[in-house]
Amino acid sequence: MGQLKGQTNKTFVITAHFDHLGIKNERIYNGADDNASGVAALFTIAEYFKSKPTKHNLVFAALDAKEIGSLGAEYFLKNYTNKESISLNINLDMIAHSDYDPELFACGLFLYPDLRDPLEDSKSEKIQLLFGHDDPDNKEQSDWTFSSDHKVFHREKIPFIYYGVPDHKDYHRSTDTYATINTEFYIEAVKTIIRSIENLDEYLSE
User: Fold this and answer.
1) Any bridge partners for residue 162, and if so which?
2) pLDDT by position in tens, the chain (length 206)
3) Residues whose CB falls within 8 Å of the CB of residue 162, separated by 6 or more in sequence, listed in order
4) Within 10 Å of residue 101's Cβ, how many Cβ atoms?
5) If 0-12 CB within 10 Å is exposed, 13-18 middle and 19+ buried, where does residue 78 land?
6) CA 118 to CA 7: how far, in whole Å?
7) What is the CA radius of gyration of the chain?
8) 143-to-2, 84, 137 alpha-carbon distances in Å
9) Of 197, 182, 30, which is closest to residue 104 (Cα–Cα)?
């Protein structure tokens, strides 16, 4: 965990889980996309904002035990002493692997539609930033509302945006290694997320 102090008492908590599946049948499951990609982005985003102060405090939390029920996220929020200051959770989980079209999803805008405008302004010309996977009545998409650590914040009525990609051919397989990462897509995804944090910081400070 780490924190960059902002200019107000409001806080963004940026999360990524660092656990994966370990070893099964003598195969190592490295979890390059799920979720080393999110953890590496966490460090990159923190490095970026060290020289670009924000209005919100930025708390960076690498969490354990997502794969067995988000126990790390539950422990974090239960023991966070200033929970009422958290205005947003930004969760990064699988952001580096796009098999076909270069698509990154921001999930949560069906539930928190007031966050849409700053994300519209964060879009990239190189990848598609799409909104969805959060409407339980949309039968064409799976609902990701409770699929990762952001669910713990959502249950506490803290708004979230979850960045991720749909399940791909290497999801939860031993082939989820650095070799199957889409490097150009990943770099652009992180840039897009950084822009979104900047825009959300301004928007939620008004």
Assistant:
1) 91, 107
2) 999 999 999 999 999 999 999 999 999 999 999 999 999 999 999 999 999 999 999 999 999 999 999 999 999 999 999 999 999 999 999 999 987 789 999 999 999 999 999 999 999 999 999 999 999 999 999 999 999 999 999 999 999 999 999 999 999 999 999 999 999 999 999 999 999 999 999 999 97
3) 91, 93, 106, 107, 108, 144, 147, 148, 150
4) 9
5) exposed
6) 20
7) 16
8) 30, 27, 9
9) 182
Q: Is 70 left (phi over 0), alpha (psi -120 to 50) or beta?
A: left
Closest CA to 195 of 112, 87, 123: 123
* Span 2-203 CATH architecture: 3-Layer(aba) Sandwich (3.40)
Tell me the two tokens of residue 175.
């082939």
How long, in residues, is the chain?
206
Q: Where are the domains of the chain?
A: 2-203
In what helix (H) or strand (E) does residue 59 lie, and over which residues does it extend? strand 57-63
Q: Measured between alpha carbons, how far is 148 from 18 in angstroms, rounded to an integer?
A: 12
> What is the spatial distance between Cα 15 and Cα 27, in angstroms, rounded to a whole number?
28
Q: How many CB atoms sit inside 10 A of residue 100's CB?
A: 7
14-32 as b/e: b if 16+ CB within 10 A: bbbbbbbbeeeeeeebbbb
